[in-house]
Amino acid sequence: MAASGRDEQFSEYVVQRRTQLRRVAYLLCGDVHKAEDLVQTALLKLYVAWPRVQRAGNVDAYARRILVNSGIDESRRPWRREEAGLDGVEPPVVPGPGVEDRTALMDALAQLPLGQRRVVVLRHFLGLSVEETAGDLQCSPGTVKSQSSRALARLNDLLAPQFGALGGTDR
Q: What is the DSSP track for 17-61?
């Protein structure tokens, strides 16, 4: 494949999927700036592997896996645990559910263990199947099911005081 054709195809993919990748990254890490870093890292790795990934098919699954793995790598780096920020600079406001609802959900999501949070994001925010989620996280479908069940039960416990019992969790 000629370099220009590769670049055009990759650029087209980025234009179509960047917003979704950014949402997934934000849901995985809970920080706008870290999410943007994750997306940049994922796109760089995806570009390097583009011809191979495109031939194999399912570029979206590969991109999600890169995001998840990059998030894991970043969370293990000690310097990432430091809280640095810019005083007076707030992340941009994204229209959607009410601020209180969104804040409550994000706070509850942030309280989940990292593995459970990843499962919830992939299964319930992106709507992936158990098998797709297991593939992206490189674990068994049984692990996805148990992590999902525990995460939804915990979210129900955390959100019940504000919204009432949410139901839908098997205990």
A: HHHHHHHHHHHHHS-HHHHHHHHHHHHHHHHHHHHHHHHH--HHH
CA dihedral 133, 137, 141, 146 (to 10 degrees): -100
* Rounded Cα gap, residues 7 and 160, in angstroms: 48
Q: How confident is the model at residue 46 (pLDDT cuts 50, 70, 90)?
A: very high
Q: What is the pLDDT of residue 130?
A: 93
Within 10 angstroms of residue 114's Cβ, the number of other Cβ atoms is 12
At 126-149, the pLDDT tens digits run 888 999 999 989 999 999 999 999
Exposed e or buried b per residue across 42-68, where buried means at least 16 C-beta atoms within 10 angstroms of its C-beta: bbebbeeebeebbeeeebbebbbbbbb
Which pLDDT band holds residue 31 (cuts at 50, 70, 90)?
confident
Q: Is 84 exposed, middle or buried (0-12, 13-18, 19+ CB in 10 A)?
A: exposed
Q: State the Cα–Cα distance between residues 9 and 164, nearest whole angstrom.
A: 47
Distance CA 75, CA 87 (A): 23
pTM of the predicted model as reported, rounded to 2 decimal places: 0.55
